[in-house]
Specification:
274 residues, globular
Length: 274
């Protein structure tokens, strides 16, 4: 029975990996195919011949470096500000008692359930009055507003799993409350901070709709908007688009590779007994 269950789990895992990985594989292989192979009625899983012309066209396309810089600016500010604010907000929600706490927690969940399309017009009108449309600062503020509730909720979950006794022991040993946070709480929350940073990074890096609505100038375009430029009234230039999409995915892969060794579970397992 156990062998059958294990076999089923393994097969399900392999199928899931194939389903999730095949689009990425197809994107990468297509980026190396010549135009005639991409448009062939008999596509092949492995390119008949490899070409870097698609990457050359993608990199030399107008606005590439500016869009890359804009995306990096938006992502860095979104991640840093979101994590900083969510860190202290999660501590307040998880550790402190205050009036309206349950309502606040419920509001975090409700905000995440609101459809983005329903908020586009109010957001645009609000940012227009604040003169923040067509500005990267307006995009950053909007991204923070959507990313922050999930980040607070996630960090709260990590914080709840950290025994309160560790903080109390630090206070008994003479630490002040800020020292307890800095020397005990923050290091133990490192896995949660890393995980939520990854989420915020991916959300801000890949987001298209909000940036497309709020930014109108070409020099303010982020990478997802720049990618849309490969589709015009004459059709879609699939080769350069796939090459540009592959290049766009590289920063996410690099970011995750640099921090994956810091994503750990069970940091506090066994820290307090009894």
């Amino acid at each position: 029975m156990r062998k059958s269950s294990s076999l089923f789990s393994n097969i399900s895992g392999v199928i899931a990996i194939i389903l999730m990985g095949f689009p990425v594989y197809w994107m990468i292989t297509t980026s190396f195919k010549p135009k005639e192979d991409i448009l062939s009625i008999n596509p092949t899983l492995i390119p008949r011949s490899f070409s870097l012309s698609n990457y050359t066209q993608a990199v030399t396309k107008e606005g590439f470096m500016q869009a890359l810089l804009n995306s990096l600016i938006v992502v860095v500010f979104t991640v840093v500000i979101s994590i900083f604010v969510a860190l202290f907000a999660s501590i307040a929600v998880a550790r402190m008692k205050f009036r309206g706490k349950q309502i606040y927690i419920a509001s975090i969940l409700i905000v995440q359930m609101l459809p983005l399309s329903a908020l586009l017009i109010p957001l645009y009108l609000l940012l227009s009055k604040l003169q923040l449309t067509d500005k990267l600062g307006g995009v950053v503020l909007t991204y923070i507003a959507f990313v922050l509730p999930f980040v607070i909720w996630t960090l709260r979950g990590f914080l709840i799993n950290i025994p309160v006794e560790l903080e109390e022991a630090g206070l008994v040993d003479g630490c002040t409350r800020p020292q307890v946070y800095r020397k005990i709480l923050f290091p133990l929350m490192a896995p949660g901070l890393v995980a939520t940073s990854v989420f915020a990074f991916i959300q801000a890096w890949n987001e298209f709709l909000l940036a497309y609505i709020l930014l109108s100038s070409q020099d303010k375009a982020t990478m997802p908007i720049w990618l849309a430029g490969f589709t015009n009234r004459f059709g879609t230039d699939w080769g350069p688009l796939m090459a540009a999409s592959t290049l766009t995915a590289i920063p996410v892969v690099i970011f995750f590779s640099l921090i994956q060794n810091k994503i750990a579970t069970g940091v506090t397992a066994g820290a307090v007994k009894g």
